[in-house]
Known about the structure:
Elements: H1 6-62, E1 66-69, H2 81-89, H3 93-103, E2 108-111, E3 135-137, E4 143-146, H4 147-161, E5 163-168, E6 171-176, H5 183-191, E7 199-201
Parallel strand pairs: 1-2
Antiparallel strand pairs: 3-4, 4-7, 5-6
Helix pairs in contact: 1-3
Amino acid sequence: MDSIDTSKLASVHISSFEKRRSVQKRTSLSKRARRFLSKYSKRERNRARRHQLEIARVIQSLCGSVGLEELEKQGMFTRSRIWNRRISRGDWRSITRILEERMGETKVVELDPYGNSSFCSRCGWFNRVLNGAKVFVCGGCGLRIDRQLNAAINLFMRMRFGYKEKWEGGRKRVQLKMEGASQKAWWDSIVLPSLVGGCVLTRGGGAEGDQ
């Protein structure tokens, strides 16, 4: 009977033991990592929830009724992974749901967001070349105003007067239902007095006039 090489058996045994130990160690690290990530993910979700509740509380304390953009994620994705990740993680609809629970659905209105940054809130002129500019410049009435403030005023007017969607030359347009009232006159008498340093009206009636 041939003798058994115990040194080879010992080396095989040690090798298999080290492999099992390595697998067990990786599994243990993986479980700890999952527990760690779960813990801090839950903490971040709770922190975001507190922020949402605080935002909703402030809005509720300031407004009798609220108009919000009816945003859909499906049309906001681009080729940028970073941008798409930010959009997918965004949960702005939670604020809408919180406000609806607290104020009632009749006082929370979702509005068409189309063109609210591109149309002049004073005269309705369409700016085709925003290009990410922070200041909206109107080529119709000469208004210069913060772009986000202009968009907020447009949303307020859509909630205040109501609107209808129409198409002109293959382009969508949101038309206010002002029943023949002058948009400029209403803007100058209602909106302008409430703005402090938010806009500049040019004298020339155009965007290039003297300020």
